[in-house]
Design goal:
homodimer, 24% strand, alpha/beta, 33% helix, 617 residues, elongated
């Protein structure tokens, strides 16, 4: 599959965009006209630069508002087109995108549109240019890819074909199966975009909210399946208008974009295997090492210059200090299968923060190979000869992701590298494992993170939610395995929390939630051990009572112990939060019956209590 | 008119919100339940605090999903309601909002809904509570205020009335004229929100994009007219769910909110005078000193620690150094009626930036009085006995707004305070006046700025636009007078431009655009005088030629002089930009015929060229 990307997807100057695309491994680019117009580089210089970077210049776009017009306006449009054909000759380009008319079309007549496009085709042929005619979703008379294709057919001109764009097709709800009926040689170009399900006018949706394949809600593997079955074998390009990508670092965005195409090629290959086993097609799709979803968290690592407070918290929660690493300044704390690694290496000036997560996977080498093929960056590891070799890559938010060997009994071989300290816990391990982890995401990298965890670890995004805090809405996106062994909540904090300045709001903290078989008993022990709980206001319990008519004894216990409660059709949820240390706190949760949530109605209570502490502190 | 506001409009803790509302002058507040639940203050403490602040507690809200349910669920809902009535008793509150059912309604039967609400009314009466039943725009069976009112009528219960919310009425396109038919004593409460015209699902629109009256697109003076004619005389409250207000400083937001109600009361009063002259109503509406829109810019002030570069720019543009102020370290530069004041006072560490704007108004004292009544903050001015007393207030972005005496010949009396220097200009004043000014706005204060300029200076917002820059979209909102004497462009830069850090993007610059009668001649003179122009790429001129088929001589002149060009049905626009000095640059514009725009198609070219300079520099 030849990969391409429109320059409009990225931030920066045209040179910066081109360099980023080349480094990320794209075969070619679409030149978005605006990027050329604002550039001081001449067309010849751009052509030379592309050649040096090994990028083909696949498509010049957009040429707007051509067809369905009066003869007088057509003359003007042909003049305008010829100027652009000359420019394309200097660029060494031979394919131009013509969008269906949205502004100046006055005549709704396919014969006329076809005859006008035929004249454009004759002119284009003189410059060796081909025209890819595309139905915009909001085109005045032509807004359906099959309608555009009928007009292309009517031109019967070798230089006139069509461009298919998944956004314009799927946003209108057109059935992409019709793609299979288009002769492959008439599909001159293909553009892909994914999009979240938002109910808004299509133009705004298209201009601001497109995302890379896998970051939205559409089944682009099915779309690609239709395309592959049509026999198409040209470039598959990304055209993404996105307010955030426009602001993000272009090198990262280009890698994110390439990851989406690599992942989509694999998904498409799997889809075709399922629907047409054994069939072959002109387009070849690279596959990746298949990996099963991880079965659980192997460990979480907390990094801090001074971890004394974190150690105290863990002890109060009943964790045992399992020992110190033989060669590194790293501690291991354990309770049940919940393992917390405390790392004081290279942590100058660092407040406690979640620095790494280990995931139990069936085949760590295959998982790492898959991640690296998906453009993840490897974490350099120095291992002694007698130590476990661990595979690790960096997530977009810089968290290190370790791919660890899953074992039937949930143990981890690398723990043998830690000298065994004397047992120090209560001993009955009320905490059994890590239930979920909540990671704060920079707003610029949120979509990238979703795709990263979906493509490399096979975590699936759930519908996102928004939680009010005293300084704004926190957006929360849960990524999880089907069986719930791994649950990650990716949260974007309100902007004011990220901005330095006189605002009292501190950076948004992250947390590790620990699964517990008896949270009331654990909380009582933690009180005795001197744990500092996040204080929950009395008004919360009054409301709880109004909503759930709880047993008075349970309500009293909840209030006494600063426990929070939720209930749904599936079961009950009781949990508490510790005080925050640096950028980290812990949560202890007990899931009763089949409760699958995270106590979302209680999140505003937590955020408000934490906000008060930052104001008082 | 009694003023009230829902606590959900503001950021912070409940105490912070209440203090901000009291300081801004609100009569009362709505307690948004969530704010109480997350607060460690007891209901009795909140009640005491409100009394001390002089705030009435007007409405407890929301109580959801009550009516249209099975008998079993009704019992639960009555239990839940009684708990809340008890809570309201502790708060000393007597009015509760009940929203039409969106989640649990299963029976579409007005008789049933009315009988269930009647039972709620009986229960409420025992606690001295009244129920304001409101139709949510997305209510399952009840989503129209007239439908809700029919059900209220059917209850025939003294403790059951309605709550009207402009959002739920206008977002659905219901005709608010029906309000006049509702008996005033059955309107228990009124909530106001404005909103921008966005085409999206109503729930998202409502939860994220509401704005204060005057900051959106709706004719709330007409809405209020219907309300006043109904005979209603209770609180008029603001209930605004807005992602930005949630993050902004609560004191500022509360002032912004109060300004919107003061302004709306005046607009309503004017509207009623026009439609029913002489009529009187129970609700009394305070009016403000009426002011005509300003006729022009009196001056613009640039503040800088070191203004040498600004002075050089002005000289190169043909400005004359008019003199130094008799008592202050302030210079005056003049060309035609364009006056630029350069202020080096109290400018430690400041790069050149626009610090003040003077507006020509008919009656400066009345205009200042109006602004102060609209909660604008006065700028403290120290004037000597023999100096002009100038009225000035601070705009939300901290720009000082001077209200200056308009004169028939466009002169300004305060210029006499400047010693006259020898003339130094070319002498024929190709620049005649300030055409427009472009001010960068912090994203938190954008809506506040729009309302400020609309309410205090009678500038009207035009449809906003978005301009792509290499690091994101710039949102631009023009505010102008009908006759174009004053035009202000309020721009929000992409977030990355505001964030400190390793990003190469500098702070978004502001600019002063100067109207010119012959921009080609002026540009030639400026070249000779050594002015540094913003360089426009050759590719731009090739595109200009394709789009406009310009006269070759004109095109050559444009390209030689780095001039930009635009044309529409009304006329032509030729302009150029100077290099940026600090946070400021100048633009010189020539409007031919009746061109009313700002060369928007050229803005991306400017932003890209400026971006390159920040990268190179």
């Amino acid at each position: 599959m030849r990969t391409s990307i429109a320059t409009v997807c990225l931030s920066g100057t045209l040179e910066e965009k081109m360099q980023a695309c080349a480094r990320a491994g794209f075969d070619g680019i679409e030149i978005f006209e605006q990027d050329l117009i604002v550039s001081p580089r001449s067309p010849a210089e751009i052509r030379r630069m592309a050649a040096e970077l090994g990028l083909s210049l696949d498509l010049y776009q957009p040429f707007r508002d051509f067809e369905g017009v009066s003869e007088e306006l057509l003359e003007e449009n042909l003049y305008r087109a010829e100027e652009k054909f000359r420019l394309m000759a200097s660029l060494g380009m031979d394919l131009m995108l013509v969008c269906s008319n949205v502004a100046t079309a006055t005549i709704d007549d396919d014969d006329l549109a076809a005859s006008q496009l035929r004249r454009l085709g004759d002119l284009a042929a003189r410059y060796g240019v081909r025209i890819a005619y595309e139905a915009l979703a909001w085109g005045t008379f032509v807004n359906d890819f099959e309608h555009a294709m009928r007009i292309v057919d009517m031109t019967a001109h070798p230089n006139i074909g069509t461009c298919l764009d998944s956004f314009h097709i799927l946003s209108r709800g057109w059935d992409p199966a019709g793609i299979e009926k288009i002769p492959a040689e008439k599909i001159f170009f293909v553009q892909l975009a994914d999009a979240p399900e938002i109910s808004m006018d299509i133009l705004s949706w298209s201009r601001h909210y497109r995302v890379f394949p896998g970051e939205g809600a559409w089944e682009l593997d099915r779309f690609m399946g239709h395309l592959v079955r049509s026999g198409y074998n040209g470039p598959v390009s990304l055209e993404i208008f996105n307010d955030v990508f426009r602001q993000a670092d272009e090198e990262r965005t280009a890698v994110d974009a390439m990851r989406s195409l690599i992942w989509l090629a694999e998904r498409t290959s799997v889809h075709l295997q399922e629907t047409d086993p054994g069939a072959t097609y002109p387009m070849r799709l690279a596959t990746l090492p298949e990996v099963a979803e991880p079965t659980g968290f192997n460990f979480a690592e907390v990094k801090a210059k001074d971890s004394a407070q974190v150690q105290a918290l863990l002890r109060q929660l009943g964790f045992a200090f399992r020992g110190r690493h033989r060669t590194k300044d790293v501690q291991l704390w354990v309770q049940g299968q919940a393992r917390i690694v405390i790392n004081e290496q290279q942590a100058r000036g660092m407040e406690p923060t979640i620095s790494a997560l280990g995931f139990d996977v069936e085949d760590p080498l295959a998982a790492a190979s898959r991640a690296l093929q998906l453009k993840a960056v490897q974490v350099p590891r120095q291992s002694q000869a007698n130590e476990e070799v661990l595979q690790a890559v960096k997530a977009p938010d810089s968290t290190e992701v370790f791919l660890c060997q899953a074992t039937p009994d949930g143990t981890a071989a690398w723990t043998d590298e830690f000298a065994t300290a004397s047992p120090a816990s209560a001993g009955d391990d009320l905490i059994t494992r890590i239930d979920h982890v909540n990671l704060a995401q920079p707003w610029q990298h949120f979509d990238e993170s979703v795709l990263f965890y979906e493509s490399t670890l096979a975590l699936a995004p759930r519908p996102s939610t928004e939680v009010p805090s005293p300084v704004g809405l926190v957006r929360s996106q849960v990524m999880r395995t089907e069986h719930g062994g791994v649950r990650l909540a990716l949260n974007i904090a309100p902007l004011v929390m990220e901005q330095p300045g006189p605002s009292a709001a501190s950076a948004y903290p992250q947390h590790i939630a620990l699964a517990c078989t008896d949270v009331v008993t654990l909380a009582r022990r933690a009180v005795e051990a001197g744990l500092e709980f996040l204080k929950i206001p009395a008004n919360y319990y009054a409301d709880l009572q109004a909503r759930f008519r709880l047993d008075p004894e349970l309500l009293a216990a909840l209030q006494e112990l600063n426990l929070l409660y939720d209930r749904d059709d599936q079961g009950e949820f009781i949990h508490f939060y510790t005080a925050t240390v640096g950028r980290l706190f812990f949560e202890v949760v007990e899931r009763r019956d089949r409760y699958e949530g995270y106590g979302a109605p209680n999140a505003p209570v937590r955020l408000a209590a934490q906000y008060r502490l930052t104001k008082d502190g």
